[in-house]
Amino acid sequence: MSSTAPRHRTGSIVLVALAAVLLVAGLALGQAWVERLVPRLPEVPATEFALVLAAATAIVAVAVALRRAAASARATARRRALQSIHRGEIASGIRNRELVARLAELGHQGGSTAALPSRFSIVADDGGLSFWSGGRRPRRVAHFPWREVRTIRSDRAVVGSTEVPVVVVRVRRAGISVELPVMLSDPRLGRYALTDAPFFATVRSWKARHRAALAAEGLELPPLTGAIPVIRPHAAA
Question: Is Membrane one of the keywords (predicted)?
């Protein structure tokens, strides 16, 4: 073993020791400075501090509410615009990291959080599945013809401490096969992800369109997957 190793180890120990000394000295000096500074600060009554804190909280809450309202208005305008030019089914999707990563693998600009908004529109028509952003003038972020879609199935994903259903769309393009985890948004106020009967109805609709489009082109149909639960409204309540 080279003799430089002990010298290097000794140098490292000395540097660590000096850093520790400087850190302790800095903490000691900083504590003394804080103790001298605090008595010089003006006293703030508890009521005034509470009012300032409440005002700051209210401002933040209003800003968040305005941002959400603007996003909701934008999504509504986009949906109306898409309904006027597309005859297919329109759903709302929730951006998630897995979906963004899979789109990036396929080379889509949707593989960027700037291109795919937190709530985006999904159009399922005779031409395939497409993701849209924008407002009154929608912009198509990604498009998947039905011939590129291999399978459509339901699954579940973990969001925070809960599980939500997702539609897994397996796409093959240019020799690359990826599964897109599409999380559907519930349009009802105060809800997050679409679940139960509306979710499974959307999955069944996409699968039916997929099989019909492949049959029309004379292409091989995907294998039939397990039955998708049909949840009646009274059973889901």
Answer: yes
In a domain, 42, yes or no: no
Q: Is residue 4 part of a domain?
A: no
Structural domains counted in the chain = 1
Q: In what order do the strands lie in the sheet with 119-125?
A: 139-145, 128-133, 119-125, 89-94, 176-184, 162-173, 149-159
Q: How far apart are CA 128 and CA 144, in angstroms?
A: 6
The alpha carbon dihedral of 60, 61, 64, 65 has a sign of negative
Per-residue confidence (pLDDT) for residue 87, from 0 to 100: 85
**HEC-encoded secondary structure of 144-204:** EEHHHEEEEEEEEEEECCEEEEEEEEEEEECCEEEEEEEEEECCCCCCCECCHHHHHHHHH
Predicted model pTM? 0.67
Supply the range of the domain harboring residue 222.
47-236
Average pLDDT across each block of 10 residues of the chain; the chain has 237 residues. List them in order.
46 59 61 60 64 77 71 80 89 94 80 77 95 92 94 91 93 92 88 92 95 88 60 45
